[in-house]
Amino acid sequence: MRVLIVGCGYVGKALGRQLVQGGNEVLGFRRNASEDPELSAAGIHPITGDLTRAADLDSLTMPFDWVVDTVSSSRGGVEAYRDVYLGGARNLVRWAESRGIRGLVYTSSTSVYGQTDGGWVHEESPAEPAGETGRLLLETEQVFLQAAREGRVPATVLRVGGIYGPGRGHLFRQFLAGEARREPNGGRWINMIHREDVADAIVAVLGRGLTGRLYNVVDDQPVRQGDFLGHLSKETGLPLPPEAAPGEPAPVRKRGTTDKRVSNRRLREECGWVPRHPDFRAGYAPEIRRFLSRELPAADAG
Ligand SMILES: NC(=O)c1ccc[n+]([C@@H]2O[C@H](COP(=O)([O-])OP(=O)(O)OC[C@H]3O[C@@H](n4cnc5c(N)ncnc54)[C@H](OP(=O)(O)O)[C@@H]3O)[C@@H](O)[C@H]2O)c1
């Protein structure tokens, strides 16, 4: 099969590597594709292009079996979200129509769930994000879902939790740098997923998922922020971070105001997906080993 990965970054490269190893032809499309040697090293053909410019997509004239949109706004604000996610989705759908594509997956985010009561949420739960960026992601999802409903593009949307893996993991890095703070009362629930499990989920959904459907991609065990830091402290021997002082500004984070446990049941039951890293303890073990063997010094971790 020939696969196009649009926004071929952290997750896209893991996915591409897996697909190349499976004998597929993979093209990785992004603005600075030629500057990332990891693409070619993984056997992914780099294609330089900007998703916000429809003409860059139009230059891709060969047929594709699967298209995966893992583009991110690269930490940009509301305008970048509007341009890259929403504008990019409109361009991609327009380009993908009438090309005979067999499946298209877009990786959205669990940040579209605005729940704050710590309860379980699944794909039918209300998605009412409090912030503008969350609302733009929701609007982006609708571009794909509507195209699927109208039979224009066989699109499916994944709502992905906080991605971690080699070289990634915001709170882990804050912890190693001594900058983490424990939230009061044990803290919020956090929902994580290892990047290899996101890559597996994309393949599982393209193979067995239903067009026009939503799937959450998180591991099996949400964890409270305090328990996460407690585990890291126990495993690394570094001190437990102090509790945030009352009124101390919360660390900046996308899902900062929500508190929810996200269920992966639909993805497991409908697509046969099983996470290789069922919880963060399994997924972070190699990173903790790297830290203990001094391959990942605390001073470099921030
Ligand atoms: N990180 C998380 O915790 C998280 C959580 C939930 C959902 N997600 C979603 O999961 C997906 C994958 O995340 P990731 O961590 O792999 O993201 P990433 O590492 O930032 O990769 C995204 C890639 O998109 C490319 N890009 C940005 N603007 C572009 C444009 N205008 N045209 C073409 N390419 C563009 C960037 O490369 P260039 O700069 O070379 O263009 C970047 O390598 C994203 O859709 C993200 O929104 C992430």
List bound small molecules. Answer: NADP nicotinamide-adenine-dinucleotide phosphate
Q: Which stretches are poorly predicted, pLDDT < 50 over at least 5 residues?
A: none
Distinct helical segment count: 10
Distance between the termini: 40 Å
CATH superfamily: NAD(P)-binding Rossmann-like Domain
Q: Any idea what the shape is?
A: globular
The CATH topology name reads Rossmann fold
Main sheet: strands, sense, barrel: 7 strands, parallel
What's the SSE blueprint?
Elements: E1 2-6, H1 10-21, E2 25-30, H2 37-41, E3 45-48, H3 54-58, E4 66-69, H4 78-96, E5 103-109, E6 120-121, H5 132-149, E7 155-160, E8 162-164, H6 170-176, E9 189-190, E10 192-194, H7 195-208, E11 214-217, E12 223-224, H8 225-236, E13 261-262, H9 265-271, H10 280-292
Parallel strand pairs: 1-2, 1-4, 2-3, 4-5, 5-7, 6-13, 7-11, 8-10
Antiparallel strand pairs: 9-12
Helix pairs in contact: 1-7, 4-5, 8-10
The structure holds NADP nicotinamide-adenine-dinucleotide phosphate.
Model description:
The protein has 10 helices and 13 strands. Helix 2 links the parallel strand 2 and strand 3. With 302 residues, the protein is α/β, with parallel strands linked by helices. It is globular, with a radius of gyration of 19 Å. The chain has a 7-stranded parallel beta sheet, with helices on both faces. The longest helix is centred in the first third of the chain and has 19 residues. The chain has one domain: NAD(P)-binding Rossmann-like Domain (Rossmann fold). Bound molecules: NADP nicotinamide-adenine-dinucleotide phosphate. The site of NADP nicotinamide-adenine-dinucleotide phosphate (NAP) has 21 residues, from helix 1, strand 5 and strand 8.
